[in-house]
């Protein structure tokens, strides 16, 4: 009987142990299910709370905008710019804006040092745009060029040779105007110019960096021009020229050169200078440019000037821009 009792105890003890293990297993399964399903279900909720805490509009209660996913850029950042970042020709990018300036810029191109070659005059006339010839009296073909210009309706001016700061090392025409001349000598020299270019309507200075700085001498010259109803264009070969100021004081119509086109005999340079003159004309309404009848200059003018109207530039003669 004692042995049977011990076996019974062992059976009951073993059964209790198995039951305990089953309970533990159930508990572990329950905990696992909790973390597997319960926590994962609440994770987005936790993220929304953190997002609300860090969003600038959370404190004010303003509606939240869901931020883009980390691996995508905002749509605005992915758009290509409408226009290139660098654009040298704005007319091709903003035609509506450039169109507003069309017709508002006037440009006069004066061809200095005319009178050497009739072929130069013909080549310039073939460009078929308004130009003004500034003829140096005393050159071998001065009268022929002046007559040809008159026959073609091309405006002419007298290109008055004047003393430069480099004179006498720098050559001056024999009929040039010198600071040392008396008023009578100056008048006599000037009157000889009109015989060579009888249809001239104005005058400008050839060289003259020294002469144009002398107020008394310029008054003598301008008084002769005024007596003939002619205008004066200051070539501004010296920044201290008094030509325009004295002309205005004396009631002589006048203007000033704004751009030299061909200080360098290079088509690229000349084109660049023409563009500078165009910009000045658009900004200020008008501009006066001066160049010379060099072969490369004539070729560049022929290539560029006829197309300036499409940029809002009207080519005119020098007489249209003096006041």
Q: Can you put this structure into words, describing what you see?
A:
The protein has 323 residues and is of the alpha/beta class. Helix content is 44%, strand content 15%. It has helices at 2-54, 75-78, 95-99, 118-125, 142-151, 183-196, 215-227, 243-250, 267-284, 295-304, and strands at residues 105-114, 132-135, 155-162, 202-207, 231-234, 254-256, 259-260, 286-291, 313-316. Helix 6 packs across helix 7 (215-227) and helix 9 (267-284) crosses helix 10 (295-304). The radius of gyration is 45 Å and the shape is elongated. It starts with a helix and ends in a 7-residue tail after the last strand. Mean pLDDT is 79; it is low at 1-13 and 36-102.
Number of helices: 10
The structural class is: alpha/beta
Radius of gyration: 45 Å
Strand content: 5-15%
The SSE order reads HHHEHEHEHEHEHEEHEHE
Largest sheet: 9 strands, parallel
Number of domains: 2
What name goes with the CATH superfamily of the largest domain? Glycoside hydrolase/deacetylase
Report the CATH architecture of the largest domain. Answer: Alpha-Beta Barrel
CATH fold field value of the largest domain: TIM Barrel
Keywords:
single chain; 323 residues; alpha/beta; TIM Barrel; 2 domains; nine-stranded parallel sheet; 10 helices; 9 strands; elongated
What's this, in brief?
By secondary structure, the protein is of the alpha/beta class. It has helices at 2-54, 75-78, 95-99, 118-125, 142-151, 183-196, 215-227, 243-250, 267-284, 295-304, and strands spanning 105-114, 132-135, 155-162, 202-207, 231-234, 254-256, 259-260, 286-291, 313-316.
């Amino acid at each position: 009987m004692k042995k049977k009792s011990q076996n019974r105890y062992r059976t009951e003890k073993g059964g209790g142990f198995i039951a305990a293990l089953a309970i533990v297993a159930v508990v572990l399964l329950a905990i696992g299910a909790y973390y597997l399903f319960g926590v994962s279900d609440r994770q987005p909720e936790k993220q929304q709370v953190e997002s609300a805490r860090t969003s600038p509009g959370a404190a004010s209660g303003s509606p939240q905008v869901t931020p883009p996913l980390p691996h995508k850029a905002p749509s605005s950042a992915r758009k290509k710019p409408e226009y290139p970042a660098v654009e040298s020709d704005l007319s091709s990018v903003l035609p509506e804006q450039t169109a507003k300036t069309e017709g508002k810029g006037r440009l006069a191109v004066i061809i200095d040092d005319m009178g050497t070659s009739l072929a130069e005059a013909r080549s310039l006339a073939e460009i078929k745009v308004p130009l003004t010839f500034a003829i140096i009296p005393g050159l071998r073909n001065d009268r022929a060029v002046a007559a040809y210009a008159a026959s073609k309706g091309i405006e002419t001016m007298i290109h008055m040779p004047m003393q430069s700061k480099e004179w006498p090392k720098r050559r001056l025409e024999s009929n040039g105007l010198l600071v040392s001349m008396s008023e009578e000598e100056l008048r006599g020299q000037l009157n000889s110019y009109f015989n060579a270019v009888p249809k001239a309507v104005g005058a400008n200075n050839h060289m003259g960096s020294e002469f144009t700085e002398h107020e008394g001498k310029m008054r003598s010259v301008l008084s002769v021009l005024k007596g003939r109803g002619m205008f004066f264009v200051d070539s501004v070969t010296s920044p201290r020229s008094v030509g325009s100021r004295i002309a205005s004081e004396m009631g002589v119509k006048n203007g000033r050169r704004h751009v030299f086109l061909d200080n360098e005999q290079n088509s690229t340079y000349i084109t660049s200078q023409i563009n500078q003159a165009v910009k000045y004309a658009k900004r200020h309404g008008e501009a006066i440019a001066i160049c010379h009848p060099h072969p490369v200059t004539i070729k560049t003018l022929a290539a560029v000037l006829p197309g300036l109207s499409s940029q809002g530039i009207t080519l005119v003669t020098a007489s249209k821009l003096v006041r």
